[in-house]
Amino acid sequence: MTRSPVPAGHARRSAERSPAPSGMSLHTLQGRRKYLTPDERTRFIAAASRQPPEILTLCLVLAWTGCRISEALALPHADLDRAGGLVSLHCLKKRRAGIVRDVPVPEGVMAILDLVHDLDPSERRLWPIGRSTAWQRVKAVMREAGVGASAASPKGLRHGFGVHALRSGVPLTLLQRWLGHASLSTTAIYADVLGAEEREIAARMW
Questions:
Q1: What is the pTM assigned to this prediction?
Q2: Average pLDDT of the residues in 112-141
């Protein structure tokens, strides 16, 4: 009898993802991912381009900064640096209140923000709407883009940004700063999501 190269119970244990030391995980208890794939990100941005201008810009900021939706809704005009291509995000978590992080965005994204909102140095909010309303609009875009149910959550775009950044070669410490994580161990969960790259690396052992 030929012995299987896969230990008994291995598949089941693989599906039970281990959370990071911070307690955060990129998968549900059933092993389903909670982040957007590269293809879903592309479809989400394409679907957002068919929305009203203010919803388009909200979706772009969420997708390209990885910020929390509450952080995006708190953004005033003055916190967008048109010349430098930076978005200054204020951490709203109690333990990290008062901390500001600058996240660079593509030139095209900043140009759209300027065109839609006519950016100025004022303290006017870019999106004077409530969190629930904003999320319902973003969720509708996710639905149109065909984003998987487990990833279509308030943190799906944030997690998708983290995974996309690491796959693009962004250093873990820089991603930590962009996401506003207090601990590098929290950011490190994104390094555990390699998809096809993980299989390619494993294949070198076979």
A1: 0.82
A2: 97
